[in-house]
Specification:
about 375 residues, mainly alpha, MetI-like fold, 2 domains, 3 strands, about 75% helix, flat, MetI-like, ABC transporter permease, MetI-like_sf
């Protein structure tokens, strides 16, 4: 670790330590809506909480030392501190809760700030080299397995987020399936349009501005405005028997699907154009000299070479679609955005988290898988 990287890491570690000891970690509420009592980690968990807090403090001291190689130690100590904190929250008997029953434990600002500072700290530490990345993956996997095991045992059943999931489990499964349909379906529909448009712009350079400029304009239209623009034509189509049978109308899944498809066009069309343009012309000329037809050159030379960049456009569009599909909840389109807007209407942060957390997790996992696939394709080309 270079010396110049110490200051931001020390700031993140110090922020996490202050959040742990002095900001409210959780809030104990009698029900979903009523306000509750906020507790710091020492107040909520008693003296065992100082063990986890001491590890966060050790991370701060480690990063303030003079040794150059500190990243692995910081990663291990941070995940160890989180592992102990999870065990205390799940298995310990919180000293602050008077009585039992229907009380809910909801997460508060101290835990969010602790999570944010830990994530920034781990991001900088894991970026030091391959060894640090392996340490991060191993430690993260262990803590994740611990969290999943505690959840399956029911040790977090007192937490409001888990209670909301158990109450709305059926609706959650349906909303998750709808969210996948909106995201993957819209990107697939967009790809069937964007890829030919990008290739047309590559074959005829005079077409480029006529294709890319309108797609860029669509990208700048706010989502709610686009829903309003689509309301009239989709309402008209919904009156026709064929489209009525598909459930197409001015509200529901159709405007969300069309909007997400339109937003996905520019990244995929642009990357398709860049992918074909980046091909070394000498390779194409050599193939022509061998007597290959235009169709053979496209299938056997151009498309395989351009495919990693085309797939990068698909990756960008998928990440964008999973986030944008939240707005489908505004027009009755379903998806996980339903929980987000329901939570906003009821002032329930746990309902909001029930919609946001799966989106974040799925997006990160999907983005990582796509990234590894693109890297593998590029290695095969080399």
């Amino acid at each position: 670790m270079e010396r110049r990287r110490d200051l931001p890491q020390m700031i993140f570690a110090a922020t996490g330590t202050v959040a742990f000891f002095f900001l409210p970690l959780v809030e104990v509420k009698p029900n979903r809506i009523a306000s509750g009592v906020r507790y710091t980690a020492p107040q909520f968990l008693g003296w065992p909480a100082f063990l986890s807090g001491l590890l966060f403090l050790l991370v701060f001291l480690l990063l303030g030392g003079k040794r150059q190689r500190k990243a692995k130690g910081a990663i291990l100590l941070t995940f160890l501190a989180w592992g102990i904190l999870l065990l205390l929250l799940a298995l310990g008997k919180p000293s602050a809760i008077p009585g039992e029953g229907a009380q809910r434990i909801t997460l508060s600002s101290g835990l969010y700030l602790l999570l944010l500072s830990s994530g920034l700290l781990l991001g900088l530490s894991a970026d030091e080299g391959p060894g640090e990345k392996r340490t991060f993956r191993l430690a993260f996997g262990v803590v994740l397995l611990l969290l999943l095991g505690l959840l399956l045992r029911g040790d977090f059943n007192a937490f409001s987020l888990v209670k909301e999931f158990r109450i709305k489990q059926g609706q959650f499964s349906q909303s998750l399936a709808t969210h996948f349909f909106l995201a993957f379906g819209s990107v697939l529909a967009g790809f069937l349009v964007a890829a030919p448009l990008g290739y047309a712009a590559y074959r005829r350079r005079s077409f480029e501005s006529g294709i890319m400029v309108p797609l860029s304009i669509v990208e700048t239209i706010p989502s709610l405005s686009l829903f309003g623009i689509l309301l009239v034509p989709l309402s008209f189509l919904g009156k026709l028997p064929l489209f009525q049978g598909l459930g197409i109308s001015g509200i529901g899944w159709a405007p969300a699907f069309v909007a997400l498809s339109l937003y996905s066009l520019l990244p995929m069309a642009r990357n398709t154009l860049v992918g074909f343009t980046a091909i070394d012309r000498s390779v194409v000329e050599a193939a022509q000299g061998m007597g290959m037809t235009s169709g053979e050159i496209l299938r056997r030379i151009e498309l395989p070479l351009a495919f990693p960049l085309i797939l990068t456009g698909v990756r960008i569009s998928l990440v964008q679609a999973f986030g944008g599909a939240v707005l489908a909840g505004l027009v009755g389109g379903g998806g996980l955005g339903t929980f987000v807007f329901l939570g906003l209407a009821e002032a329930s942060p746990d309902l909001i988290l029930l919609g946001v957390i799966p989106i974040v997790v799925i997006t990160l996992v999907m983005d990582h898988i796509m990234k590894k696939l693109i890297e593998a394709l590029r290695r095969n080309e080399a």
